[in-house]
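Appendix B. Extra example for self-study. Work through it before the problem class; the solution is given directly after the inputs so you can check yourself.
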Amino acid sequence: MKADVAIAPVQNADVPMTRQRIGDVLLAVENVSLSFGGIKAITDVSFDIRKGEIRAIIGPNGAGKTSMLNCINGFYHPQQGSITFKGKRRRNMRPYIAASQGISRTFQNVALFKGMSTLDNIMAGRTLKMKRGLLWQALHWGPAQKEEIRHREVVERIIDFLEIQHIRKQPVGKLPYGLQKRVELGRALAMEPDLLLLDEPMAGMNLEEKEDMSRFILTVNDQLGTTIALIEHDMGVVMDISDRVVVLEYGRKIADGTPDEVQSTQRVIDAYLGVAH
Amino acid sequence: MTSGPEQFDTVPKLLLRNAERYGSRPAFREKEFGIWQTWTWAQARDAIRAFSIGLQKLGLKRGDTVAIIGDNRPNLYWAFTAAQSLGAIPVPVYQDSVAEEMAYVLSHAEIKFAVVEDQEQVDKVIAIKDKVPSLQKVVYDDERGLQTYDSTNLHSLESVKEIGRQELKANPGAASAWTDEVARGKGSDVSVILYTSGTTGQPKGVMLTHENVVVSGHNANVFDRFTVDDTMIAYLPMAWVGDHIFSYGQAFAGALCIACPESPDTIVEDRREIGPTYFFAPPRVFENLLTQIMVRMEDAGRLKKGMFDYFLKVARRSGEKILDSKPVSFGERTLYSLGDLLVYAPLRNRMGFSNLRVAYTAGEAIGPELFSFFRSLGINLKQLYGQTEASVFITLQPDGEVYPETVGMPGPDIEIKIADSGEVLFKSPGVFLKYFKNDEATAATKTQDGWVHTGDAGFIDQRGHLCIIDRAKDVGKLTNGTLFAPKYVENRLKFFPEIKEAVAFGHGRDYVTAFINIDLTAVGNWAERNDIVFASYQELSAHPQVYDLIEKRVEELNLSLAREPMVAGSQIRRFLILHKELDADDGELTRTQKVRRSFIADRYGPLIAALYDGSTQCHIATEVTFEDGRRGVIEGDVRIVDMKTYPVASDVRREAAE
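Solution. Structure tokens for the complete assembly:
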């Protein structure tokens, strides 16, 4: 599907785009610090993510953005501070627990099962939702088969949603990068997450692919009500689609607010353009 | 099988007939969420009736126009019938047209309702609605992303159907009132307005009557003996007359089954799964298929490759003869059957052609090699010639009489004649009513007594088949007054594998001459096999043996041109092989690889002069642009060859072997 550039804005008087109402705090990061040996990756960072919003985390290279996501989904354990998700405060977290609580993510370097088909990759995202054990699945009979059919339906809806029907049965290793990113998003969606973490979903894409991806992110947020936290380098995209932006530099938070506010903050401009000394 | 169209003279009447007679047979299929969904004719009628009544409740009236925009979806095909049942006129619009083009069509057609596929199309329609004051309601099929839109004048297709279903439930007379509404329709009513894409100027709205669509569909079904067991896959734009006649007119007239692909990207997969019996595609689709097969065979193992090569040779020898039921020796037949088992059938299956009975191609000239390749595999590929103003069909190739250079014989009830200017005129039951709000254009195209100008020049050969040679306006004249069709000559030259590009001259001259570009791959291969050493394109193209090779080809062409009085004057008297390839980077070709004749005539002025002044050698220096942007000069001597031409032989007997 092509995004028609000539008629991008739909927000005209007759069709108000009422954005999803933004709710309470879903996830709060409080005074989190993380270091690897002597290197401080994150220093005393606090921010929150509200239900239903698109929250962007930006910053120059090495600012600690990916480390922050890794803390949120329990891959890294911050030495100080706490993270509260759905009202539950926690310090140490395992990725699979984070996943079962409703946090899913995509990776900066696509992390798919290259030899498996698109369908199987997305199906893998349903693993946590499967009730039947290995034996049942291996027999593929009765309840296990019924369960698979039910999950397959969810997966097919995601395939339809992301418009990747044509690669349903192709091994993902052979797909172009932009499509792999889309499959990865599909796998993350298959978990039906409450919070979706996207690590540079548009890196290395051309303009058309970026437009498509932006549209998918907005639609996920809009229709499924999924809260989204994303890291992205393309400022145009960030400013267009996010509700609030947090800016990191050298592991510290230097700004937090709506795209407009952030853009006009002197420290952010300095961080991106450099300062004349 | 199907009775004549007399009593069922509109598409909605055909729907009622099909629902009654073939109620439980599949009418539409669509792949959704990875599974093929099927609707029978009875189910299709129920859906169309509910949708139609819903539209009526929203205010659609007889004579209103309804835009239909989107990919091929059963719901959108039903929108045609739903509108037609009420006497409204559907106007399909190309789904990929930009907002501006769409605005022109929608405002010109005074659209009241628009039935569109999804958010993308809704956005476009909303963006241009100020330019289309007549637009009242927009109905969409796919709801995704549209929940938050203002719904005052925007309805989901499902909700419109629901309005209809409620009405049918609440009001016992609703169903018969709708049937009465259908019965009020007449064959002479306008059934559809199709806008021609129009390469020049604004698009024109071609108005077709129900009779046009129904009779054309019926005749085409009779011509190729289609029955209710036939299936086709609908994937070409609905706004194009071909799709409207094949997937709508023919389907309703013959109760054929229409399968809609899952998405435009999955057509190949979907075709394999459905296995259509009737298929239409422009030549480039077949070209891509061939390329894919060849590329994959290059990677195949030696056994498979050897088998493929061997049986392809067998197919080339006798495949077409077997397809045309011509005599073939028993040994060859056995060999072909073996090839069918091992190679041809698996190939057909790969392409989704296992069940195919008839495939058509049209739109542009198809290379005879390409054409023969598919035919020799047992695929009944044929050409047809038609246009929107004719409800597609003007000529078709009958089974067993398929010649690559012709477009066949007039279809049932169709007459053609050639004007003095060489232009093809036709008269048929499919002749359009008129152009919408453009009487001037109607008068220029349609004569008082019903003949329609096609704008194409052609001739009828001795077998009674029509050959199209060029657009009528591009046909020139030699000084002695004979017709000269440059594109015809060039295409015929390009059909030889050794010739990549050709430019013919002759308008306002005494005789026809040509520039020829050899095909480096084909001629290079040939050179290697014949121990001809060459270092560059220029060297190869000037090689005497290459000249001999091309000379033979030109002679072959002249001989075959001499057989047809109309093009006999276009025989090539002198030709030369260009020292460089024509290239879009040098401005000699357009980006779509079409020859820019006048530019070439300017650039190679001295060569053209030499072609006509009798010299046998000409020195030429040409500036070229290399791929990295540097410029350089290629220069050299180009040899000019005189050819023998043949008398216009009215008594030349056509050899059976071509």
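Self-check: Chain A is about 35% helix and 25% strand. If your reasoning did not lead you there, revisit section 3.
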